[in-house]
Amino acid sequence: MPSIHSYKIITATHRTMSVKRLKQVSVSHDDDDMTQHRLEQLKHRFGLSEIMYLNTCNRVCYAFCADQVLEDGFMAQFVAAINPELTSEDVDDIVSRISLFEGEYAVMHLFEVASSIDSLVIGEREILRQLRCAYSKSQERGLTGDAFRLLMNHTVEAAKRVYTTTRIGEKPVSVVSLSVKQLLKHNPSTQSRVLIVGAGQTNVLVSKFLQKNGFKNFAVFNRSFEKAQALATTLRGAAFSLDSLVDYAHGFDILVVCTASQEAVITKEIYAQLIGSDTGKKYIIDLAVPNDVSEEAIATYDPIYIEVEGLRELAQANLAFREAEVYAAQNVLADELARFGEVYRERQIELAMRHVPSEIKAIKKHAMESVFKRDLAELDPDTLDLVTRMMSYMEKKCISIPMTAAKQAVSGKENVKSTASRKTHRRKHVEVKR
Ligand SMILES: NC(=O)c1ccc[n+]([C@@H]2O[C@H](COP(=O)([O-])OP(=O)(O)OC[C@H]3O[C@@H](n4cnc5c(N)ncnc54)[C@H](OP(=O)(O)O)[C@@H]3O)[C@@H](O)[C@H]2O)c1
Q1: Ligand 1 and 367: CB distance under 6 A
Q2: How far is the CA of 167 from the CAs of 96, 311, 323, in angstroms?
Q3: Does the beta carbon of 207 lie inside 6 Å of ligand 1?
Q4: Could you tell me if the CB of 197 is within 6 A of ligand 1?
Q5: Is the CB of 177 under 6 A from ligand 1?
Q6: Per the CATH hierarchy, to which homologous superfamily does domain 175-318 belong?
Q7: In angstroms, rounded to a whole number, what is the distance separating the alpha carbons of residues 341 and 349?
Q8: For the segment 376-419, what is each residue's pLDDT rounded down to a tens digit?
Q9: Whose CA is nearest to atom 47 of ligand 1?
């Protein structure tokens, strides 16, 4: 019977590798067929019964099932097979930077990845979505089967339990979401005129958050007009080049400014020109470093000014809060690991006993259609009906007896094992490195 030990995971992350190195251990290819082909090759070459592949911007992960004990040198062979262009020095360097998890350690590692305990930003649920996508893809490609179906179902359950029973995902840690949250605390009208200055990544995110929160009156200014236009299109607003900001006559209620300029883009003069004679309350989100609104403008006009430095401190404090929840999350996962052990063993019994129902059915059929055929033919209809019902009753009971007995035997024994494994995981923090 296969054991939980057959689960294995090789993981490479941003923590020990440069982005360039991470790319070297990925099999992702623009041509999806090529990615599939390379994964199939790995599966075949190393005799893996299933393989699941996860590739994010800071992690590459090969999760697989192999019943055999991995020999010394397996990691080097695997890395070389992933990327045949690597030199032996590259392979050695990579092997020293990646981790191999086996058995319960592998299961726990997958739980921790899904629950974002192992992430660059702890508590970000995005990794769970990425992991589910990776699994669906592996399934579509026919690379995974029953073992990963069972493990992934439980992994998703475990991660959801972490997100709902601990506070790991609470409190935003990105300055972008914190800035919008702070703005919303002031309850500005969703009819506000929103002026976006700069159409880089940061402002794209801020404006998406605003749009999601119901704001719809946008004007976008950017140094290159095309980028202003692209963002304005998604916001259903107007686009302008940055040069024309000085002539803009429609004012603003909320100014979102973030460019890579080293000089203040919103000087006191431009600010004065933008507001004209408008004395209404103004809100500014300025996430640029250095700030894009001049100190003079802020001092003179005293808007509600949300800027990056204060938010960074808040983001750090929130991250520390999430980190403090990791221990609670690990306790939940240790519990889930023990539960998974039982689920896994029950499934193995089900698989081993798959043939029992059909064999019992066949015995019944043989008894009624051959061995006792003549005797049954002599029975009156009522008696025949009774015998048939008794046989069906016996059939059902016979099918359930061995299954129930085996499950009881396993769960009785496993309760002891589960407690032991829980302790091990707390102490050793899951990693088996070669
Ligand atoms: N708060 C944070 O956590 C955080 C995170 C990331 C970035 N930032 C800061 O935000 C700023 C922008 O970052 P980003 O990631 O959004 O950058 P990005 O995607 O590279 O976009 C840069 C933006 O600035 C504009 N720009 C560049 N130089 C300029 C100049 N001299 N005058 C006027 N506009 C100029 C660019 O216009 P073109 O389209 O014409 O090139 C573009 O709109 C930087 O100051 C960065 O330090 C903060």
Answers
A1: no
A2: 34, 20, 10
A3: no
A4: no
A5: no
A6: NAD(P)-binding Rossmann-like Domain (3.40.50.720)
A7: 13
A8: 999 999 999 999 999 999 998 888 887 777 777 666 544 434 43
A9: 289
